[in-house]
Amino acid sequence: MFDCVVSEFGIDPTRTIMVGDRLDTDILMGNTCGLTTLLTLTGVTTLDEVKGHQESDCPARQSLVPDFYVDSIADLLPALGD
């Protein structure tokens, strides 16, 4: 799916961030596609769940670890005003 978006809109994956609230869909897709990932803790995912995946030796669980996280998408608003 992401390959279609890249080819249709000329997206540069190195300048793209996947923002989502689910590890097993949003973050997995971002990591699989080589994107920087940002998890918002406003969905079903908890920080304890992220830490469990991060501490695991299992590659499948490691693929669910985001690069960054925020409590809410609203936490990004100050950075967007710059």
UniProtKB/TrEMBL annotation:
<keyword id="KW-0963">Cytoplasm</keyword>
<keyword id="KW-0472">Membrane</keyword>
<dbReference type="InterPro" id="IPR023214">
    <property type="entry name" value="HAD_sf"/>
</dbReference>
<keyword id="KW-1003">Cell membrane</keyword>
<dbReference type="GO" id="GO:0043136">
    <property type="term" value="F:sn-glycerol 3-phosphatase activity"/>
</dbReference>
<dbReference type="Pfam" id="PF13242">
    <property type="entry name" value="Hydrolase_like"/>
</dbReference>
<protein>
    <recommendedName>
        <fullName>Phosphoglycolate phosphatase</fullName>
    </recommendedName>
</protein>
<dbReference type="GO" id="GO:0005829">
    <property type="term" value="C:cytosol"/>
</dbReference>
<dbReference type="GO" id="GO:0005886">
    <property type="term" value="C:plasma membrane"/>
</dbReference>
<dbReference type="InterPro" id="IPR036412">
    <property type="entry name" value="HAD-like_sf"/>
</dbReference>
